[in-house]
Write a structure and sequence with these properties.
Chain lengths: 170, 283, 572
């Protein structure tokens, strides 16, 4: 009991210290699959021109679907305003991986949907739970990331993109 | 770089493809025990004590092995029948060569020699009760006696009774056994029966000398039911186990009057010896 | 413990200082995640929450990764010495450095040494993976090499010893896994193919497990005869191979994989020598607003583990993965009746249609209506005992049984018929979700307690109301109507969220239809969570029913519990 508490406090301090650091994480290089089963390296996300969003989700995760649904309502505006692309990376494993394409296309989402069937990308990004959303600048530097989704959470993403744009203009 | 990695990949590929064991049936071998109707005398548990097995690894061309034989004889004098010895001829110096034409090696002996890593210290060596002494199984001469002391001090958990039936016409030997767990012992047990022979005259190296009429004692000749024997699975109503095994010696040159049967009772999981019993053909 | 603490502290301090100092510099980058999942347990005899010795228990881990251009090094320390009771139940208890690796990657090659995760195809032959919430970590300790000699060709080779919970005595192990995988993507190689809308790739894998066999086994035959399965009749090298195909043309896609395993007598299959196989076929068609998918899966005797005597009750030492292709629900009341792949075999079909009533149509309104319909049915595989097994009265040490490939066995395991609607009203602040499911679930086989076939009707309704840009309210009501097992249930959830930081919820799961009045329990739960960027702190108090916990495609049983929980997770 004592050990647990000591250890928890210890880990927690370390963890929160780390969380404060904005130490310029870069996009990890992992091979994903497109909905057609073709290889897609995460390197292809970085274009040098526009920022991009990476959202980790799964078909069985309700908040993930809510988040992507909510963003889909404003996505067109975001694309127009920031030239941003959203890469929706599904962590569905081989049990549900084949259900991703019909699900996404029926939804009519305009995102670039990718698949990470053995969670390699999820691990490389140190993601604990989905939904997990990150914003990268045009060079692939991590600008902001967030876990969980609450209705209206997309507003914060917008703010981040806006700030990024203003910084670029300066 | 590219070439190296491709070669490595191909090497893994090849090694993987040979790694596949297809087993041919039938898979189950019936236990080759024979029917028995031998009535064993009643057992008085208070008279049973734990005997110790010493397996001596030796060879006719092994120059230091007679030192082992002498030590074993000394130990025998000291412990008398509470110590049962089996002489296992195995390893390089047991291979027949030149004047040393006799081959005392057996399949069982070779397997035991391998399993207990005797080659690591070489002959002469011994394994006491198939139990570790100071974390090692194969022991040098100096450790034999302390290892026996260690084993002797352990609790007695079972008794083995033997009865030998010799059929000189068919040239078969049948050994009947009765195993009685004692003091509420409930572990899985395994019983192995071996045949050993005393007084065989054959050349032996002793230091620089070659002794042509050397007397070889307790030489392992055969097993009745495999290297480690068979597990005792179906108890009688009173909790004892009756097992009988038969071998045929028509093709063998054994002098039966010098032979004896050694029954080794082991823990089925660790194979540590729990009890050992020896019975001579001619008492 | 005493030795590990200073080491860990020193390591962390070094890492901390260095990462602060290095920042974004050429010295590379440090990232990681941390999790603490603790609970204070209160006994409750009615729900079956046992009194536990250490009332406060927690799962704690810390992951650190260091990246510098192509190089990555990582480690994870897990402290599970007093784990949550469900982890203790499955033997996931202990502490130590459980994951450590060095990895180099460029466009041509990737080399990994240490512990790693890998999957070949659908995982029929090899899937080394982890799920920290389920207490599964089947990482391999060894080496991996991945080569892409030409665009569209991927070759992988792995060698490793599988992780066995917190048993770190790898040197004493007599088992290891080696595997190879090759994938050829014609559409990646030939540009004209993909331009015309074609996708074509084929792949194959070969995995072999070595496990020393040194002991005879004994089988009691009729008439109390003893049969011996001698050590040399127990295979030491067991191989599986698989071939797969992926074909696509525009919106149409066909995927298939077939795997075969040679004789692998083990605890799960009662030590039979029959070959195993599995087959998956999936076809789907999708276009904007419409998607349809159908799958067929058959697996027979494909349980494949690093050690043959491990029981199939957990994923411990599992080398491969057989997916159950049915749709998985996260609805509170259906979670206890989730189907998972049966280790000894299953044959099943699944079909799903996704359709969106278009935006702007009369029925669909401004935002359209999403409709999902689904059907799934699983049976056991047919089993006809071989004459030896028939004669012996047991399968052990024989070829076991024969089975016609496409024949459904006599036992229905699971069936699900479901439909789901999701609609956002013209006033976009209101959203409504409705779902109905009819579930048939074989409790006797799937949960191992003899009882009649469970038949449940589940209705779910969810209303989300966005009060303003930040505040939202969510109400969920579920009703599961059933006569079998624990009978009918009601569930209600009310959640208030303030984006992006706060979540507060109250929920109650009421077993009002339980035949036994004492067990008409309210499993209530009160929870609050605070999220800031990637850190999430949540507190909950309440009761959890004994049942099945599934994440992704894997399930395990969890005991009943009652108490106060605290969870802290962060990524950095």
């Amino acid at each position: 009991m004592k050990k647990i508490i000591i250890l928890a406090v210890f880990f927690l301090t370390c963890g929160s210290l780390f969380a404060q650091l904005d130490n310029g994480a870069r996009l990890p290089s992992v091979d994903l699959k497109t909905l057609d089963g073709e290889t897609f390296s995460t390197k292809q996300m970085t274009t040098g021109e526009h920022p991009f969003i990476v959202s980790l989700w799964a078909t069985w995760c309700m908040p993930c679907r809510e988040e992507l649904d909510a963003i889909s309502l404003v996505y067109e505006d975001w694309v127009e305003e920031f030239g941003v692309t959203l890469f929706a990376v599904s962590i569905d494993d081989s049990r549900s991986a084949s259900k991703v394409a019909p699900f996404v296309r029926a939804k009519g989402w305009e995102y670039v949907v990718l698949q990470d069937v053995n969670s390699d990308f999820k691990r490389a990004l140190n993601v604990v739970d989905v939904p997990f959303l990150c914003v990268f600048d045009q060079y692939g530097n991590l600008v902001w990331s967030h876990t969980s989704y609450a209705q209206g959470g997309e507003e914060e993403v917008y703010e981040v993109l806006k700030k990024l744009q203003n910084k670029d203009k300066e | 770089m590219k070439k190296i990695s491709l070669i490595v990949t191909l090497a893994i590929l090849l090694s993987a493809f040979v790694s596949c064991d297809k087993i041919e049936g039938p898979y189950i071998t019936p236990d080759d025990s024979v029917e028995t109707n031998v009535e064993f005398p009643d057992l008085d548990p208070s008279t049973v004590f734990r005997k110790v097995l010493i397996e001596e690894y030796t060879g006719t061309r092994c120059v230091n092995c007679p030192d082992g034989h002498r030590e074993l004889e000394a130990l025998h004098n000291r412990y008398s029948d509470t110590l049962v010895a089996i002489g296992i001829h195995a390893g390089t110096f047991a291979m027949p060569m030149g004047a040393f034409t006799t081959d005392f090696r057996t399949e069982e002996g070779n397997a035991l020699y391998q399993d207990y890593a005797v080659a690591q210290i070489g002959t002469p060596a011994a394994v006491v009760n198939r139990s570790p002494y100071n974390n090692t199984f194969a022991l040098n001469i100096s450790s034999w006696q302390p290892a026996i002391e260690q084993e002797k001090s352990k609790a007695c958990v079972a008794a083995v009774q033997l009865y030998i039936e010799l059929n000189p016409v068919d040239k078969t030997i049948t050994t009947h056994t009765k195993t009685t767990p004692l003091n509420g012992y409930e572990g899985n047990m395994q019983l192995a029966l071996y045949l050993i022979e005393d007084g065989i005259i054959a050349p032996q190296k002793d230091g620089e000398e070659t002794i042509d009429d050397y007397v070889h004692n307790h030489v392992l000749r055969a097993s009745f039911n495999g290297v480690y024997g068979t597990q005792l699975t179906t108890p009688e109503e009173d909790g004892t186990y009756l097992k009988s095994y038969q071998i045929d010696y028509s093709q063998k040159s054994w002098n039966i009057s010098n032979c004896s049967i050694v029954a080794v009772l082991m823990d089925a999981d660790t194979r540590e010896v729990l009890q050992v019993e020896q019975e001579k053909f001619i008492p | 413990m005493r030795r590990i603490f200073p080491i860990l502290t020193a390591l962390l301090i070094t890492v901390l200082c260095s990462s602060t100092a290095w920042g974004q510099s050429k010295w590379g980058h440090i990232s990681g995640d941390f999790g603490f999942n603790g609970m204070y347990y209160i006994p409750d005899s009615i729900i079956g929450a046992k009194e536990v010795k250490e009332k406060v228990r927690a799962n704690t881990w810390l992951n650190l990764n260091y990246t510098n251009s192509g190089f990555t090094a990582g480690l994870r320390y897990e402290f599970y010495s007093y784990p949550l009771i469900d982890f203790e139940d499955i033997g996931y208890k202990g502490q130590g450095l459980t994951h450590y690796f060095l990895d180099y990657k460029n466009d041509f090659i990737q080399v990994t040494a240490g512990t790693f995760y890998e999957q070949f195809g659908n995982g029929f032959t090899l899937r080394a993976y982890e799920d920290r919430q389920l207490g599964i970590d089947n990482s391999l300790l060894g080496a991996r090499i991945k080569v892409t000699p030409y665009k569209g060709i991927t070759l992988k080779g792995v060698w490793g010893i599988e992780r066995k919970n917190f048993d770190f005595e790898y040197t004493k192990r007599h088992d290891y896994v080696r595997g190879l995988d090759a994938e050829l993507s014609f559409s990646d190689m030939i540009g004209t193919l993909s331009e015309k809308g074609f996708v074509l790739s084929v792949g194959g894998s070969f995995v072999s497990k070595y496990e020393k066999s040194e002991k005879d086994m004994y089988i009691t035959l009729p008439d109390n005869q003893t049969g011996i399965l001698s050590a040399d009749k127990i295979p030491q090298n067991i191989a599986t191979w698989a071939a797969r195909l992926n074909f696509g043309y525009k919106g149409f896609r066909l995927e298939s994989e077939f795997a075969h395993k040679i004789n692998d007598p083990n605890n799960t299959n009662s030590y039979i020598y029959k070959n195993g196989n599995s087959f998956l076929l999936t076809a789907s068609y999708s276009m904007k607003g419409f998607g349809v998918e159908a799958s067929f899966i058959r697996s027979d005797n494909m349980d494949f583990r690093s050690q043959r005597d491990i029981s199939a009750s957990t994923s411990l030492l599992s080398i491969n993965y057989i997916p159950a292709v049915n749709r998985q629900y996260t609805y509170a009341l259906l979670a206890n009746y989730t189907y998972a792949s049966q280790p000894n075999g299953q044959i099943g079909v699944q079909a799903q249609v996704n359709y969106k009533i278009p935006k702007g149509s009369k029925l669909g309104g401004k935002y359209g209506i999403d409709i999902t319909a689904n059907y799934a049915r699983f049976h056991n595989v047919e089993q006809k005992l071989v004459p030896d097994a028939e004669a012996n009265g047991l399968m052990n040490g024989t070829d076991g049984y024969t089975s016609r490939f496409f024949a459904f066995g006599n036992d229905l395991l699971y069936q699900d018929i479901g439909i789901e609607f999701s609609h956002r009203f013209n006033n976009k602040n209101w959203k409504l979700d409705l779902a109905y499911n009819f579930i048939t679930y074989n409790l006797t086989i799937l949960q191992g307690h003899p009882s009649p076939m469970f038949k449940g009707h589940n209705v779910m309704g969810k209303v989300t109301y966005k009060i303003n840009t930040k505040h939202a309210l969510k109400l969920e009501l579920h009703h599961l109507y059933a006569k079998e097992d624990d009978g009918s249930w009601l569930y209600g959830l009310l959640e208030y969220s303030i984006a992006p930081h706060w979540f507060i919820s109250v929920a109650d799961q009421w077993n009002y239809g339980n035949a036994d009045k004492i067990h008409r329990t309210h499993y209530y739960n009160i929870a609050a969570a605070f999220v800031i960027k990637t850190t999430r702190i949540s507190l909950n108090f309440g009761k959890t029913k004994e049942g099945i916990l599934c994440i992704g495609g894997v399930c395990r049983s969890v005991p009943a519990s009652y108490g106060l929980g605290l969870t802290v997770t962060t990524s950095f």
